[in-house]
Amino acid sequence: MAKEEVMEFEGLVTEILPDARYRVQLDTGHSIIAYTAGKMKKHRIKTLAGDRVTVEMSPYDLEKGRLIFRHREQHSAPRPGAGAARPQFRRR
Protein backbone atom coordinates (compact mmCIF):
# COMPACT_ATOMS: atom_id res chain seq x y z
CA MET A 1 0.00 0.00 0.00
CA ALA A 2 1.29 3.44 -0.90
CA LYS A 3 1.75 6.00 1.82
CA GLU A 4 -0.69 8.39 0.13
CA GLU A 5 -3.59 6.00 0.75
CA VAL A 6 -3.72 6.37 4.54
CA MET A 7 -6.65 7.86 6.44
CA GLU A 8 -6.24 10.66 8.97
CA PHE A 9 -8.44 11.17 12.03
CA GLU A 10 -8.35 13.48 15.02
CA GLY A 11 -8.79 12.30 18.56
CA LEU A 12 -7.94 12.60 22.23
CA VAL A 13 -5.27 10.62 24.07
CA THR A 14 -7.07 8.91 26.95
CA GLU A 15 -4.35 6.63 28.31
CA ILE A 16 -0.59 6.17 28.06
CA LEU A 17 0.34 2.50 27.68
CA PRO A 18 3.71 0.76 28.04
CA ASP A 19 6.12 0.49 25.11
CA ALA A 20 5.45 4.05 23.80
CA ARG A 21 1.84 3.32 22.86
CA TYR A 22 -1.31 5.33 23.54
CA ARG A 23 -5.04 4.66 23.71
CA VAL A 24 -6.77 7.28 21.58
CA GLN A 25 -10.49 8.07 21.49
CA LEU A 26 -11.24 9.24 17.95
CA ASP A 27 -13.78 11.95 17.23
CA THR A 28 -15.81 9.28 15.42
CA GLY A 29 -16.26 7.45 18.74
CA HIS A 30 -13.88 4.54 18.14
CA SER A 31 -11.02 3.73 20.50
CA ILE A 32 -7.69 2.63 18.99
CA ILE A 33 -4.11 1.87 20.01
CA ALA A 34 -1.54 4.23 18.48
CA TYR A 35 2.22 4.58 18.53
CA THR A 36 4.42 7.61 18.01
CA ALA A 37 5.60 8.34 14.47
CA GLY A 38 9.31 8.56 13.73
CA LYS A 39 9.42 12.36 13.34
CA MET A 40 7.77 12.81 16.74
CA LYS A 41 10.34 10.48 18.29
CA LYS A 42 13.19 12.21 16.50
CA HIS A 43 12.17 15.66 17.73
CA ARG A 44 11.24 14.33 21.20
CA ILE A 45 7.67 15.59 21.15
CA LYS A 46 6.00 14.48 24.37
CA THR A 47 2.38 13.37 24.36
CA LEU A 48 0.33 13.31 27.56
CA ALA A 49 -3.13 12.06 28.41
CA GLY A 50 -5.66 14.69 27.39
CA ASP A 51 -3.72 15.93 24.34
CA ARG A 52 -5.48 16.36 20.99
CA VAL A 53 -3.68 14.43 18.26
CA THR A 54 -3.92 13.56 14.57
CA VAL A 55 -3.74 9.83 13.86
CA GLU A 56 -2.82 8.18 10.57
CA MET A 57 -4.36 4.76 9.89
CA SER A 58 -4.27 2.12 7.18
CA PRO A 59 -7.64 1.09 5.75
CA TYR A 60 -6.64 -2.56 6.29
CA ASP A 61 -6.32 -2.36 10.10
CA LEU A 62 -8.69 0.07 11.78
CA GLU A 63 -7.62 -0.87 15.32
CA LYS A 64 -4.08 0.57 15.16
CA GLY A 65 -2.70 3.93 14.16
CA ARG A 66 0.30 6.24 14.17
CA LEU A 67 0.41 9.59 15.99
CA ILE A 68 1.66 12.09 13.45
CA PHE A 69 0.80 15.44 15.08
CA ARG A 70 0.09 16.78 18.59
CA HIS A 71 -2.13 19.86 18.54
CA ARG A 72 -1.16 22.83 20.65
CA GLU A 73 -3.44 23.91 23.46
CA GLN A 74 -5.36 27.02 22.48
CA HIS A 75 -6.90 28.50 25.63
CA SER A 76 -4.93 27.13 28.54
CA ALA A 77 -2.15 28.79 30.51
CA PRO A 78 1.42 27.89 29.56
CA ARG A 79 2.94 24.92 31.30
CA PRO A 80 5.31 25.75 34.17
CA GLY A 81 8.85 26.06 32.91
CA ALA A 82 7.80 26.20 29.27
CA GLY A 83 9.69 28.88 27.40
CA ALA A 84 12.09 29.55 30.22
CA ALA A 85 15.39 30.98 29.07
CA ARG A 86 18.27 28.53 28.99
CA PRO A 87 21.64 29.65 30.28
CA GLN A 88 24.05 30.33 27.45
CA PHE A 89 27.52 28.86 27.75
CA ARG A 90 30.44 30.07 25.71
CA ARG A 91 33.24 27.92 24.45
CA ARG A 92 36.71 28.99 25.42
Essential attributes:
single chain; 92 residues; mainly beta; OB fold (Dihydrolipoamide Acetyltransferase, E2P); 1 helix; elongated
Provide the CATH top-level class of the domain at 12-70: Mainly Beta
The CATH superfamily of the domain at 12-70 is Nucleic acid-binding proteins
Arithmetic mean pLDDT: 85
- As a percent range, the share of helical residues equals under 10%
Rg computed from alpha carbons, rounded to a whole number of angstroms: 16 Å
Overall morphology: elongated
Largest sheet: 5 strands, mixed, barrel
Strand order of the largest sheet: 1-2-3-5-4
The CATH topology of the domain at 12-70 is OB fold (Dihydrolipoamide Acetyltransferase, E2P)
- Quote the distance from N terminus to C terminus: 53 Å
* Number of E strands: 5
What is the chains' assembly state?
Answer: single chain
Output the number of helix runs.
1
Following the backbone from N to C, one meets helices and strands in this order, namely EEEHEE
The CATH architecture name of the domain at 12-70 reads Beta Barrel
Q: How much of the polypeptide forms β-strand, as a percent range?
A: 35-45%
